[in-house]
Write a structure and sequence with these properties.
134 residues; Sufe protein. Chain: A
Length: 134
């Protein structure tokens, strides 16, 4: 792929690896695979009173998916699932102009020119949705 996709901000998000590992006692978990590229991610989530209390992620995935998972693990605690789903929908609608509420999403703007890579970014969100659905 091009250097535009895997630039410094994406590499930094992936290297941060926020939430990497597994939760000891998650409320629920889900594993999702992208059959097009082989990305595989497991999300453990602990939900308390309708809010994400903690989230962990473990992946065997490309840099885009790893970066998105790290960002999600940093940003999701404290939010409702509905709030996280709004972000996912905004990414799917137009990744080139992400919502101002998550400024680090701007790192994924180059994905707009590589539509086949969009699911790499949204896969962690999909796994969280499935885990929360239980």
């Amino acid at each position: 792929m091009t250097d535009a996709l895997y630039h410094r901000d994406v590499m930094r998000l992936a290297a941060d690896a926020v939430g990497h590992g597994r939760l000891a006692k998650p409320t629920s978990s889900a594993t999702v695979t992208n059959p097009l590229c082989g990305d595989r991610i497991t999300i453990d989530v602990e939900i308390d009173q309708g809010r994400i209390k903690s989230l962990s992620q473990e992946s065997k995935a490309c840099l885009l998916c790893q970066a998105a998972a790290s960002m999600l693990a940093r940003r999701a605690p404290g939010l409702t699932l509905a709030a996280v789903n709004e972000i996912k929908e905004a990414i799917e609608h137009d990744i080139a102009t992400p919502p101002d509420t998550w400024p680090e999403l701007a790192a994924f703007a180059p994905v707009a020119d590589h539509k086949s890579r969009l699911r790499c970014v949204t896969l962690p969100f999909e796994a969280l949705g499935r885990a929360a659905a239980g």
